Amino acid sequence: MSSNATLPDLAKAGISLPNTPLIRGALGHLKKYTSPTTVNHCIRSAYFAILLSRKIPRSSSEPLDVELIVFSTIMHDLGWATDKTLLSKDKRVEVDGANMARSYLEEVKLSNGWDKHRTQLMWDAIALHATPSFALHKEAEVKIAHIGIMADFWGPNYPGYPITIEENKEIVDAFPRLGFKEQFLDIMCGLCALKPGTTYDNFVADYGVEFGLDGKGTDKEDFAKKRFALSSPQIFYPAIGSYEQDGD
Prior knowledge:
With 248 residues, the chain is mostly helical. The protein is built from 12 helices and no strands.
């Protein structure tokens, strides 16, 4: 996929994604820094997002910012970059992705119309994409980006969201999964090994506790102990007592 790559229309599902310079450039950027499996996951997420945006009732009559949704879903896993030197040492993987996408907007001069609010929505869509308790209660573009990304994990089994077997098949046939399940586990466990401190307060650490630092159970007990030691009841709650005692 070159920097001039475009996304095909999917006739059966009736999905057409925007063919703008920004989206074409984002596709090339995604391929440059992530694996083919990640590339296909992000592209499928964009298709699912636009598919479901037509099926989910909305309270607002304002038109959706489709380019923002597609850009955000395409770029949402830049934090899975194959070159680990591109990643921060102290930020969650979703924040890395959001920051990298924002930097891309700043570096390329294709962001006309991306004012501060629009850029913030994009950042939120990426940073919150794995946190439904936030994303589902944000602006429509943030919510739909999250739903599209989660749809690629569930497919037709996505609870509460109508995806037919035929729609799912057309998207997956166009952009195959390429061992996504196995690579996802490798990435999650890899993050637990690479920068564990950024995982302890979120879902990524669940994979370290369950599967260890290599997906095969290595050091999972030690990782679980460190996560527990830094959990809120062990750190935050005692701090309240210490503060109140000092204040007496």
